[in-house]
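Retro notes, structure queue

What went well: the backlog is down to a handful. What didn't: a couple of records were mislabeled last round, so from now on we paste the full input next to the output in the thread. Example, using ThuA domain-containing protein from Cohnella cellulosilytica:
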Amino acid sequence: MKKALIVWGGWDGHQPKEVAEIFRGQLVEEGFDVEVSDTLEAFADGEKLKGLALIVPVWTMGRISQEWVNNVSAAVQSGVGLAGCHGGMCDSFRENTDWQFMTGGQWIAHPGNDGTEHTIEIKAGSSPLVDGIEDFTVSTEQYYLHVDPANEVLATTRFPVAPGPHTTNKAVDMPVVWTKRWGHGRVYYNSLGHQANIMEIPVVKELMRRGFNWCAEGKALAPAGESAQAYTGMQDNQL
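Corresponding output:
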């Protein structure tokens, strides 16, 4: 049975416990053996992490030891999948650029705050992960992120919608859903998910379900006995 680890905590405003429970239910339905932890110490055992098929962080804002980031990074490099949403994955540890390099982006703003109505535009044909999914509208935070140009973008949202100093620039399509590789591992991110009710929206839930499975499948496809080129982080990556 595929093993998954969900680690939740950090800022309570994102309802990490409730979101983690939604994800746990999805993964159980997909046949995963799921462990749920509310402490970052779950990342302390690097060898245990390498035995997983999937790691799901649900942790907004906080600080983490470099050793634990290195453990997650090494596990993903070996083929373990990494999948998450919103601030729970791409606003987890603002001081740690290694985490941001691995996940593919970092939140910086949500003009208009919660309740901003905006459209999610699916990049048709970009990936089977979005086959059959149509554009949809949500009323929630519209995430503006700094993103890795290596990401494969599967969905975007158009800025600006809400007023602000950014509106004097040209309109831009901001990535909402993306995938990337980290060594032999697969990484999946969806910027939606401000609170648990957003993750219960059927199309959002389906996007996450597909992302979880896609990331976990990478473990079996990683070349046996072949290690990805090791990356142990930058010495100056934190304050």
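Agreed that this is the format going forward. Reviewer comment attached to the example: Residues 25 and 34 are 9 Å apart (CA to CA).
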